[in-house]
Amino acid sequence: MNARNLDYEAELRQRTRGAARTTSSEVLMRLDHVSMYFERGQSMFGSAQKVGAVVDVNLDIHPGEIIALVGESGCGKTTLGNIITGLQKPTSGKLLYKGEEVPKLSRDKANQFRGEVQMVQQDSYAALNPMRTIYQSLSAPILQRKIVRGRKAAKARVIELLQTVGLTPPERFLDKYPHQLSGGQRQRILMARAISLNPKIIVADEPVSMIDVSLRISILNLMAELNRKLDIAIIYITHDLATARYIAGRGRMAVMYLGRVMELGGVNDVLSQPKHPYLQALLSAVPTPDPEIARAMTELPLRSLEMPNAAKPPSGCRFHPRCPMASARCTSEEPQLRLVGSELTACHYAEEAHELWQRKMADISAIKHV
Ligand SMILES: Nc1ncnc2c1ncn2[C@@H]1O[C@H](COP(=O)(O)OP(=O)(O)OP(=O)(O)O)[C@@H](O)[C@H]1O
């Protein structure tokens, strides 16, 4: 079944190619049955527990596409982002970059991989050296990697980078220290640092969650612009479905739960035709100002609000203790991703759940028209 996931991925690509911005069938990066287990809590009283932060994930990343990785806190988004950028080595499975296994890359190619796959972190303050000016922080990597030679060329390139990320006039920022900038400006500096190395992929881990709501759209717009103009693939990690829809409107979305991808497809399909009860629950929890609609939205309640212990995931479908549709089958048989409509969904009852969702949407639409 797992081998078939990749076939489904290929089929899905075909189906979403029209909708997605990328027209490329080229695979830049492939995650092939990637899992990451951490050992936790080893003490003199007991043995360590294994936490499956990422479990058997298959994903192809194409040049210039946007993928939103969404899910609740602790579902494994950051760990998956760290694996993609090579910061963490998966405990099993393969990470392939341009067709070659990352751990087996030659020294030159490994160096190229490190430049071409960049991370933009959530906490821009922690990500920048407080003792360095913006010029120093931005010029060091390009000089070190010989993208430019000499201080004059470095300064010209830093000015160009600041302009690209919308920090103008750039000269005003060169001698500033991180603490002299706002959160939004620091986030733009992180984007500038990431693009300075001419990346093919940027993993942006909750890049707007620590900045003012009023500034979030401008940072998301900047990312979309970098994706469009520089053809950089963006992996946007978030727990917020609204910003995921905004940035990845024409891209894809992977919904994670306790380390596993539960639903994967074109963003608009995934959000308008959710098949997995977990995604339906997430969508139902999005606040709406109309109390009648809010009431109708929560008519598919979760059986439990408690997130299971990641070290002891439930048997069968890991969502079953919370799922309103769970049956005996779900307690014993782990559902694999399969094609339902135009998305991949890991649920035995995806068709039934989808039907229920459509009925609910019809009811809500009736409320709106009363
Ligand atoms: N270094 C580590 N050692 C032990 N457990 C870890 C480690 N890193 C992550 N985990 C565990 O792996 C699981 C996934 O964590 P991860 O940070 O990837 O999730 P996340 O979805 O990014 O959460 P958040 O949105 O809160 O950052 C969690 O149960 C977490 O406690």
Describe the structure.
With 370 residues, this protein is of the alpha/beta class. It is built from 15 helices and twelve strands. The protein is 41% helix and 19% strand. The protein has helices spanning 2-16, 77-84, 107-116, 124-127, 134-144, 151-164, 171-174, 183-195, 213-230, 241-247, 267-272, 277-284, 291-297, 328-332, 350-369, and strands at residues 29-40, 49-61, 66-70, 92-97, 100-101, 117-120, 201-205, 233-238, 252-257, 260-266, 338-340, 343-345. α5 packs across α6 (151-164), α8 (183-195) packs parallel to α9 and α13 (291-297) runs antiparallel to α15. The structure holds adenosine-5'-triphosphate. Adenosine-5'-triphosphate binds at residues 38, 40, 51, 53, 71, 73-79, 239, 310. Adenosine-5'-triphosphate (ATP) binds next to β1, β2 and α2.
- Strand order of the biggest β-sheet: 6-7-8-3-9-10-12-11
Number of helices: 15
The overall average pLDDT, rounded, is 88
**Which value, in Å, is the CA radius of gyration?**
22 Å
Q: Estimate the global geometry from the Cα principal axes.
A: globular
Q: Could you give the order of the helices and strands?
A: HEEEHEEHEHHHHHEHEHEEHHHHEEH
Bound molecules: adenosine-5'-triphosphate
Largest β sheet strand count, sense and barrel closure: 8 strands, mixed
How much β-strand is present in the residues?
A: 15-25%
Question: What secondary-structure arrangement, pairings included, does this model have?
Answer:
Layout: H1 2-16, E1 29-40, E2 49-61, E3 66-70, H2 77-84, E4 92-97, E5 100-101, H3 107-116, E6 117-120, H4 124-127, H5 134-144, H6 151-164, H7 171-174, H8 183-195, E7 201-205, H9 213-230, E8 233-238, H10 241-247, E9 252-257, E10 260-266, H11 267-272, H12 277-284, H13 291-297, H14 328-332, E11 338-340, E12 343-345, H15 350-369
Parallel strand pairs: 3-8, 3-9, 6-7, 7-8
Antiparallel strand pairs: 1-2, 1-4, 4-5, 9-10, 10-12, 11-12
Helix pairs in contact: 5-6, 6-8, 8-9, 13-15
The structure holds adenosine-5'-triphosphate.
